[in-house]
């Protein structure tokens, strides 16, 4: 017979952290950034307010970490290797894969609601926006820069192209359609964006 | 000696309407969409609350009209012919002109603050977003569709391209950089977006 185990404190705090993230994302999606409070997050997560303040200095900090955690887990679920853009040697196929996965994420209500709330807050508040870009967006965009540079070395992208501008031809249209809800975000749309950006709109000689 | 003129009521109400628009745009840029009230707009414009409610059913309606008025005047100032994309026969030059003007507008604080407040509200609230798209955005995007269709007929855009998707390669990157404040919005950037979208990123054979 084995001894009964003492509760593992690191496992318990991992459980609390996850409950706090879920409560934070749920609340911000339901009532918006402005009306989400540390008190409400603590109540929904079933922890004391002190637990949250022991780990994060502010509501902004816990919401940012919750969202980073969501984005990281989504990237991990998307495939082995974690949050990278694959390099199979076929740039078109690799970008279609990434843009289709982005479309799927934008269409997922569990992502859509908190992502809208946090993006809207960043649109209005420059300091929140800067943190959002620094901690979440810039590392994601860097993956495109790396992949496009590799494509340039492989001869699949013109040498004169600036990868940091070029990547906006992929992520810009998706953001436009998602944030402004103009038309449905589909895989066919993602494929067309990749094809138009790679081949251009002007006829080829 | 001429008779002293009676005050012109239509001119007086035009003055009130303009004062209400200016107050509405100023307030929404300063305190945000949620905290802007009809009372505060009336007080700043120097009119009675009843004057506003005689012309508009709600805060949302007056803010939308104020913003439409701002956008229309900006388009009129941009050049004769009003809010159209020119067709000089040179698609690249015409699009550079429009994208540079868009960049200038986004960099103008008088546009930036209310535009951010209204866009953020539309990002969160689907009904506001839908009105924004229907009344303001869709007519603007239609101008791109028309210009790209003319370019297809002139042989400057491949016949297989869907203009409604293609236009997002121009407006998407600008929205991304403006809303998320990633990097400066310059004329050189606008020109690069036009060139990349027209020529594509892949090498031409």
UniProtKB/TrEMBL annotation, chains A, B:
It comes from the Bacteria. InterPro entries: Homeodomain-like_sf, HTH-type_TetR-like_transc_reg, HTH_TetR, Tet_transcr_reg_TetR-rel_C_sf, TetR_C. Keywords: DNA-binding, Transcription, Transcription regulation. Residues 14-74 form the HTH tetR-type domain. SUPFAM superfamilies: Homeodomain-like, Tetracyclin repressor-like, C-terminal domain. The keyword Flavoprotein does not apply. The keyword Ribonucleoprotein does not apply. Residues 37-56 bind DNA. Signal peptide: none annotated. Gene3D superfamilies: Homeodomain-like (1.10.10.60), Tetracycline Repressor, domain 2 (1.10.357.10). This is TetR/AcrR family transcriptional regulator. It comes from Streptomyces sanyensis.
